[in-house]
Each structure stands twice: as structure tokens, then as C-alpha cells.
Amino acid sequence: MEERMITALLVAKVLVADGIMADTEKARLLQIMEELRLDVAESEQVLLLDGMDAAVEAARGLPAETRAALMDRLAEVALVDGRLSPHELREIQELAAALDV
Fold it and tell me: How confident is the model over 80-86, as a mean pLDDT?
């Protein structure tokens, strides 16, 4: 799995951790997918949350510096709606542990 898909899927994973994706969160996800230059099929896959578990597995194979930068991005997007829910925090903590960051 390409790094850009890993990033988009893990961003989506954090944003839906609390069971809802606020408009500001969805707008940020769409912006990130555009920045990553995802095509229509890839974007649909992310919006359907298809492949999140595979993305976690694939992220484990990324270099340590890349994993750390990814975690920084996940923390940033978790705060895009102005609050960090306990579910989002737990998701970030679990991802940090899974990625050994």
C-alpha cells in the first residue's frame, strides 16, 4: 500500500473514531486527499473507510521518521473541529503504540 493511501486511511480512522465526522473534519479529509493526489477510486475507498486495518499494517513498514510525521499529522487532524474526543485520543494512542512511535 502506498504511503499516501496509508496516510489518508489513517486520517479517516482518527476522524471517525468518535462515531461522527463533523463537517470541518470531512472538509479537512477532502483537503488532505487532494493534497495527496488521490484519484476518484482511491478517494471513494477512503470515504468508505475500506482498508483501514491494512493501512495500519502497512504503516508499520514505514521508516521511523515517516511514522513519527504521520502521527503528528493525525494529532493535527484530530483537533480540526476544535476538540479532542476521548475516542479520538484513544485511537491516536493505539496507533502510536501499533506504529511504535
Answer: 86
